[in-house]
User: Fold this.
Amino acid sequence: MNETQQPPQPPQPSEQCPEERLDRLQRRLAQFAAARGWEPYHTPKNLAVALSVEASELVEIFQWLTPEQSAKIMEKPESAHRVADEVADVLAYLLQFCEVLGVDVLDALAAKIERNELRFPVPGTSTPNGHSSE
Assistant:
């Protein structure tokens, strides 16, 4: 490498594929918990309860809003920040829950979408057994 060439830089988070970003974030969450000695408390039950609490905190933001107000919640920086924080908390606990139980969140979601596509076909199309969905 000559003086004008720069060493390759690691990809920025936005340059990584979503799966790589998710894996990296999941590892960071595990390291965060391990560094603080929280692993014994990260049981499936405790993580499911924490996930429910955080989801409730997200719901609380919208509790008394009209549909119109809720559709515009991200327009105000202070409410957008609150929503983003609660979404992050929900995702963090979901990823930790999946890590503890060995669930690949992307595979689980893909499989669920496929099952739902079979259960709820587009109106007017044929189902795999040849029957119309109407």
In short: The CA atoms of residues 94 and 128 lie 33 Å apart.
